[in-house]
Design brief:
The chain has 282 residues and is α/β, with parallel strands linked by helices. It has a single domain (14-281), classed as TIM Barrel (Alpha-Beta Barrel). Helices cover 42% and strands 17% of the residues. The chain is built from 9 helices and 12 strands. It has helices at residues 20-29, 49-60, 80-92, 122-139, 161-172, 180-190, 194-200, 231-243, 260-281; strands spanning 14-17, 36-39, 63-66, 98-101, 104-107, 110-116, 143-146, 175-179, 206-211, 215-216, 221-222, 249-251. The strands form 3 sheets. An 8-stranded parallel barrel has the order 1-2-3-4-7-8-9-12, surrounded by 4 helices. The chain has a two-stranded antiparallel sheet with strand order 5-6. Helix 4 (122-139) crosses helix 5 and helix 8 packs across helix 9 (260-281). The longest helix has 22 residues, at 260-281. It is globular. It binds fe (ii) ion.
Length: 282
């Protein structure tokens, strides 16, 4: 249970990432969604219409916060003021947890809007363990760390991504957000074995799953979040759900935002897979 607020609501089932295009429709129709995830960085203003809307949304749906600004793996000093702003937002909307990506986005005073990958070795592991601990201390809560898509690898990586992320969770005592599409993008881009990745995950630390769509480019696959979830990603998702059917799942769609009904159809598909798996295991 989160210590961010005394009455946070438990998260279960399937939700969607809340995008501004859908807020009015969600507030007026209250669709059948188990929870919503906010892109925290879009909601850091502490007044105005968006704050009022969020307060209304949080009355109807349990919320979580998803961040892009911690620059978790960076060697720049941790932005404690940013962490405090995230913590205030989490308290205000009664967020059940906070997640961030295993990447860096700031170096030498330059801030990039990209989620930049890191080498997987003992040196970066020790650094990330210390950073996650520092972030958890600043937030006063456990952090969910998400695996990212990448378009390059490092010569000085000598650990697999799954070994790195498992060791990070264990040593920093944090939780994981597993993005199944990111696993599949890395499978296509780098030959990572997606099935083995799922099979070796420490599922007891996986508190959330992301599902999204990718886009084929000329020489690589882009984590574009502008498409329905692909069939191979649904298959990997089922493999993960077969290991632990109760992990909350989120549909992420960030570009070329479709009508809300398209996302609700994706939610239905995820629910059908969970139901099928539970029935098969009963
Ligand atoms: Fe994700």
């Amino acid at each position: 249970m989160s210590v961010l607020a005394s009455n946070v609501r438990p998260i279960s089932g399937v939700g969607i990432g809340l995008r501004s295009q859908h807020i009015h429709e969600i507030l007026t129709t209250l669709p059948d969604l188990d929870w919503l995830e906010l892109l925290a960085d879009n909601h850091l203003a502490e007044g105005g219409q968006s704050v009022d809307q969020l307060d209304s949304i949080s009355k109807h749906y349990p919320l979580t916060l998803h961040c892009v600004g911690m620059s978790l793996a960076s060697v720049e000093p941790l932005d404690l003021e940013y962490c405090q702003r995230i913590k205030r937002l989490a308290k205000r909307v009664n967020a059940s947890w906070i997640s961030e990506h295993l990447c860096f986005s700031a170096a030498l005073g330059v801030y990039s809007h990209d989620l930049l990958p890191i080498p997987y070795n003992k040196e970066t592991l020790a650094h990330c363990v210390q950073r996650v601990q520092q972030i958890q201390e600043a937030l006063g809560d456990r952090l969910l760390v998400e695996n990212v898509s990448s378009y390059m690898t490092f010569k000085n990586s000598d650990m697999s991504e799954i070994s790195f992320i498992s060791a990070l969770a264990e040593q920093a005592d944090c939780d994981l957000l597993i993005d199944v599409n990111n696993i599949y993008v890395n499978q296509l881009n780098h030959g990572l074995d997606g099935k083995a990745y799922i099979d070796h995950l420490p599922v007891e630390r996986v508190r959330e799953i992301h599902l999204a769509g990718y886009q084929q480019q000329e020489n690589f696959v882009l984590d574009a979040h502008n498409n329905p979830v692909s069939e191979p990603v649904w298959a990997l998702y089922q493999r993960l759900i077969e290991r632990q059917p109760n992990i909350p799942t989120l549909i992420e769609w960030d570009n070329d935002i479709p009508p809300l009904q398209v996302l609700l159809d994706e939610v239905k598909k995820a629910r059908q897979i969970i139901q099928r798996v539970k029935e098969a295991q009963a």
